[in-house]
TrEMBL record:
Function of the protein: S-adenosyl-L-methionine-dependent methyltransferase that mediates N(3)-methylcytidine modification of residue 32 of the tRNA anticodon loop of tRNA(Ser), including tRNA(Ser)(UGA) and tRNA(Ser)(GCU). Interaction with SARS1/SerRS is required for N(3)-methylcytidine methylation.
TM helices/strands, residue ranges: none
A Pfam entry, by short name: Methyltransf_12
SUPFAM superfamilies linked to this entry: S-adenosyl-L-methionine-dependent methyltransferases (SSF53335)
Catalytic activity: cytidine(32) in tRNA(Ser) + S-adenosyl-L-methionine = N(3)-methylcytidine(32) in tRNA(Ser) + S-adenosyl-L-homocysteine + H(+)
One example of a Gene Ontology biological process annotation: tRNA methylation
PANTHER family: METHYLTRANSFERASE-RELATED, TRNA N(3)-METHYLCYTIDINE METHYLTRANSFERASE METTL6
Species annotation: Cyanoderma ruficeps
Presence of the UniProt keyword Magnesium in the record: no
Subcellular location: Cytoplasm; Nucleus
Protein name as catalogued: tRNA N(3)-cytidine methyltransferase
Entry keyword Repeat: no
Gene Ontology molecular-function annotations: tRNA (cytidine-3-)-methyltransferase activity
């Protein structure tokens, strides 16, 4: 059971203690690095060559398809925390059993999609992914039903969502650990694409990697593509967001900021007696009721 406790030293921070002694903290302040971590990042200034970066961009879909070929549906755990973390999935209803239309942009193999459909029978979901193989895994899932969801392959940076979803028809868009895999120069294209299908006054619910997350600190300099942007050994890429960068990105695409904060938590490995610092951004951005 989580216990919430407001921090006396920082009004925009909430610290949550867990039974295993770990913590979760929300707020607008970035994680403070240790001297050793700061020194490591300061040394990591060598970037991957331009030739290799262009190759990674060209082969992005291929690399994600190979990722799902290797890992099938077994890599990510089902995300049963979504409705707990994003109360908007319930709060945006005008009445209790109102039917919601959602879009999961970047659905992977359905680790978020299917728990949502199981938990809430009054949801119809559009879902899309960059990887054709991931989309096929979703369609083969025993819980998949065309009466409750429509799944399709889509490159959100160039394929028009209006080809599959009516304009201004979606109540909630989830963008969970998706934007970080896209080159920063193309992120705005994703947000503008989503904007077209979202109803005025409705929200994008965002969760992704935050600055100084443990995963960021594990990268070597040979994996650095740019500021806060890295490539994994398998060719897939990951960007680590600041609240400032994300805010500017959404606002430039026409959205209004509702919530935008870091979530800092510890992952505890009791077997190895390790406490690993994780940092995410959890945010909500709204499409205005009227264009200005």
């Amino acid at each position: 059971m989580f216990q919430e406790k407001a921090s006396a030293n920082c009004l925009n921070t909430v610290t949550i203690s867990t039974e295993d002694g770990a913590f979760q903290k929300k707020g607008h302040s970035a994680r403070v690095l240790s001297p050793e971590e700061a020194e490591k990042l300061a040394k990591d200034q060598v970037l991957v060559s331009e030739f290799k970066q262009l190759k990674l961009e060209k082969e992005a879909q291929k690399n994600w398809d190979l990722f799902y070929k290797r890992n099938s549906t077994n890599f990510f755990k089902d995300r049963h925390w979504t409705t707990r973390e994003f109360q908007e999935l319930k709060a945006c209803r005008e009445f209790a059993d109102q039917k919601l239309t959602i879009l999961e942009a970047g659905c992977g193999v359905g680790n978020c999609l299917f728990p949502l459909l199981e938990e809430d029978l009054n949801i119809f979901a559009y879902a899309c992914d960059f990887s054709p193989r991931a989309v096929e895994y979703v369609k083969k899932n025993a819980l998949y039903s065309t009466e409750r969801c429509k799944v399709f392959q889509c490159d959100l940076t160039k394929d028009d969502l209006l080809d599959n979803i009516p304009a201004d028809s979606v109540d909630v868009v989830t963008l969970i650990f998706v934007l970080s895999a896209i080159h920063p120069d193309k992120m705005h294209l994703v947000l503008r694409n989503i904007y077209k299908v979202l109803k005025p006054g409705k929200c994008v619910l965002f969760r992704d990697y935050g600055l100084y997350d443990h995963a960021m600190l594990r990268f070597k300099s040979s994996n650095k593509l740019g500021e806060n942007f890295y490539v994994r050994q398998d060719g897939t890429r990951s960007y680590f967001f600041t609240v400032e960068f994300l805010s500017q990105l959404f606002k430039a695409a026409g959205y209004e900021e509702v919530v935008n904060e870091y979530v800092q938590r510890e992952t505890v490995n009791r077997k190895e007696d390790l406490r690993v610092p994780r940092v995410f951004l959890q945010s909500k951005f709204q499409k205005p009721f009227s264009e200005t």
